[in-house]
Amino acid sequence: MTHIAPGVARCPADSVQDVLRADGDTDRQPEAYKTESYRFLGDEDIDFARFTSPEFFQKEAESMWPRTWQWACREEHIAEPGDYYVYEVVGKSILITRTEEGEIKAFYNACLHRGTKLKPANSEGFTHELACPFHGWSWQLDGKLKHLPCAWDFPHVDQEKFALPQVRVGTWGGFVFINMDPNAPSLEEYLGPLPAHAKAAAMENRYIAMHVEKELPCNWKTAMEAFMESYHLVATHPQLLIANGDINTQYDIYNDHVNRLFALTGVSSPNFKGESSEQKILDSMLLGDRATLGDRLTVPDNGRARHVMAQYFKDLVREQSGLDMESRSTSEMIDTLQYFVFPNGFFFLALSFPIIYRFRPLGLDPNQSLFDLLVLPPIPASGERPLPAERVRLTADESYTTVPGMDEAIGIVFDQDTGNLRAQQEGFTTVKKRGMTLANYQEVRIRHMHQTLDKYVAMPPLD
Ligand code: FES
Ligand SMILES: [Fe+2]
């Protein structure tokens, strides 16, 4: 038996790069699609206590969460002066505002008098000033102290110095990111290759068509890791195998904070055991739209499902958004290119699945989390951006298929994904083994995330 170095072995089926070359549009392929960036990161078990222990959770809360860039809201949530949005994570509440001058600012959402939250948890809206509900101290939208009732009783308060303490803000692709660490690297440095790779996806020209936040009975990392690999398709989503690559997905590691998954659509999984054909692959997709599609869903003789599907999406995007996508490659239109930004953001590039995820602990419980799922299509051809969709909240036991406007087939997939999580979290305290054993290639993003997390939890708490 020949031994090859760990991390070198790959699924023997066609790779992502093989399929892209077979598409015959290499000249249209963005450079980022044509490259691979895997590194072997070791094969030690990942300790289960990282998902269950209050001590580890506390270290994350003190040392990691306040030091990292997290997308808190979209710019359109705070489109006009006076708009505000509250983002909460592990006991910290951050109030993001649009000032009179049109600047975006973020503050610790707490009164400097006796600490009351200025705006309620997870609220959003419009306000003329940031006024405390308790005794009425108020601040301007740019954080300057505006009014101190009975100022005569506070001669020890220098009103010039009583501005609301700020949190750093950065924007990319229409997302507003916050970071509580004044010494953190810039957002630009943190995001590494993502802005360049995602340029054509024009995340800034999108609108929020759907926003679902689901409570999950598991650690935030347990939830997140369910979306970092395609290895689970065969057992968790067998209905997807006919038209999705899984064990031939490509995984790439960039800087400490960014990695990606590159999964094929419109080819059958190497795990698929049924009878496949180009037409059957196409038939299994786009089911919800079949009635309106007619001939556009027929693969011509010697044609390929991938090409028909890509053309379908090009037509759809032009009809809905007026965007000319004709020069885009097949892969750009249909494949899953999903970028992870540590600690908790996921960005999908293809317009056929314009999805964003975010994962956070729910409250201060290592066994509970909140999963935000946004659908972010391009703004309509009129050029007017629709108002952000209302958030829909699902409890742990409620189905995604109950969300208004959710495609049923997609709702079922998310139910399948989240349906494993309670059993996994409960298994962590039962398993007769110290840690989880990860695949060298297919689960490398999970290991990458833990290695970055280790760097943060080794730091002292942020004051
Ligand atoms: S606690 Fe805010 S004004 Fe008193
Ligand atoms: Fe899944």
Plain-language structure description:
The chain has 15 helices and 20 strands. Helix content is 24%, strand content 21%. The strands form four sheets. The chain has an eight-stranded mixed beta sheet. The protein has a seven-stranded antiparallel beta sheet with strand order 2-11-10-5-4-3-6, with no helix packed on it. It is an alpha+beta fold and 463 residues long. The mean pLDDT is 95. It has helices at 16-22, 31-34, 49-52, 54-64, 187-190, 194-197, 220-225, 233-236, 278-283, 290-293, 305-321, 330-334, 408-419, 421-428, 444-457; strands spanning 46-47, 70-74, 83-89, 92-98, 104-108, 124-126, 130-131, 138-139, 145-147, 166-172, 175-179, 210-216, 250-253, 258-263, 336-341, 345-348, 355-361, 369-375, 391-394, 435-436. The protein folds into two domains: 16-49 and 199-457, Alpha-Beta Complex (Naphthalene 1,2-dioxygenase Alpha Subunit, Chain A, domain 1), CATH 3.90.380; 69-180, Rieske Iron-sulfur Protein (3-layer Sandwich). The protein binds FE2/S2 (inorganic) cluster (FES) and fe (ii) ion.
Keywords, separated by commas or semicolons:
binds fe (ii) ion, 20 strands, 8-stranded mixed sheet, globular, 463 residues, alpha+beta, Rieske Iron-sulfur Protein, binds FE2/S2 (inorganic) cluster, Naphthalene 1,2-dioxygenase Alpha Subunit, Chain A, domain 1
Bound molecules: FE2/S2 (inorganic) cluster, fe (ii) ion
Strand content: 15-25%
Our count of helices gives 15
How many domains? The number is 2
Helix share bin: 10-25%
Q: Output the strand order for the largest sheet.
A: 13-14-15-16-17-18-12-19
| Whole-number mean pLDDT | 95
